[in-house]
Here is the input.
Amino acid sequence: MANQKNESALIKKVKDIANVMASAGVGFTDYITQLTYILFLKMDAEKEELGLGSSIPDGYKWNDIVDLSGDDLVEKYEEILKDLSDEEGLIGTIFTKATNKINRPVMLKEVFKMVDSENWYMMEGDLKGAIYERILEDNGQDKKSGAGQYFTPRALIKAIVDVVDPKINETVADPCCGTGGFLLAAYDHMRVQSKDMEKQDFLKNHALFGADITPLVVTLASMNLFLHDIGVNKSPVKLQDSLIETSDDTYQVIMTNPPFGTRPQGSVEVYANRPEFIKTSDNQVNFLQHIMSIVKTGGRVGVVLPDSVLTDQGATAKVREKLMKDYNLHTILRLPTGIFYANGVKTNVLFFDKGEETKDIWVYDYRTGIKHTMATKPMTRSDLDEFVSCYCSGHQQDRKPTFSEENPNGRWRKFTAEEVKKSDTLDFKWLDLEEKDERTVQEVLDDMQAESDGIAEAVAKLKELLGGVDL
Here is the structure.
């Protein structure tokens, strides 16, 4: 039985399937979506065999396709993907804009045979979910796939969830949810708080909300949650552009990592749909405004944002003013480079509550003198233990700085309301530690390439704004 196998054996099985797809010319990102579709069909069949019913219409089920081969298999698979993408509820979400990427019949047949050799549905949710999370993590670290932009390091997510501390009766949202990491970590944090069946039902079916603008990501996030037994009838994840969404829904907890860079080409201008926003083309600043608009009074936020949100003037400074006036920005975690797919990007986690103005701001500097790489020295949850301890979640009145005149390199420091008012930015620095560059030659080259790509993108955008004039 598959549920008796250990995690590593099943991960090897899934990687064997990946190798088959790679032989068919299917990239890592396409592979994970194709595996998602095929796995879902197989698990639905297993569920029906157990007398638990099927979610898939007749004619589109596992038994309608598994014995086919050759062109008949490809044609039936493509028919299933197309028609299930038009369904409502969980099915339509899992198969959002689904298309076939395995055009070679022999390779597609091999994938079906390998998936058919295991019993997936009866596998424990934690095991199924762990396998899928591992695939997503591998995918996120694959630079060629570009999928890292959808993947936030799980160590960072866990630390953010631990300090924001969502409760089992609260609603939790991630308006740019990627593969669902924040929602899943919130669920794991909340589900152990009570065994009450009503609270557990609320948690699984009503407490969580996620959104993403990319169909691929909506599929991955929905499947990720489904494999953890969350949203088994209706996915909590929607395909939508959160920045132009004008719903009146609000949430008690928001934890998120908005996408880096600019909005996708052809996207609707945010200000045209959200005239209440301070007008800006900065994607992250617009996401900050959106988050501010959907958190309930008394609600809590943990959001990853680049340094520019703390330092830029103009419209960004006006948004900061509003944040400081109507929200209590009580904590900033300065993050090191090397933990995200975008090389060299400098980010912070902003923690704020809605309903009171900002006074003192506590800053934990986990950047100065720190170096991580996704491949050779990834961040671990234990790296953030001191920050979590210093944060004093639930009893912030007990916070004590590690910085002092006697210990000027303490990483945890309070900036008083007076100091905050005097500062033009929120980019607080005080540590005087030698920063060693421990990057490999390849990592240095990758960083240089990323900077070059960023400059080229900026020049192209400027040319576009100037009407194609040569610079």
Remarks:
- Confidence is low (pLDDT under 50) at residues 143-148.
- Residues 450 and 456 are 10 Å apart (CA to CA).
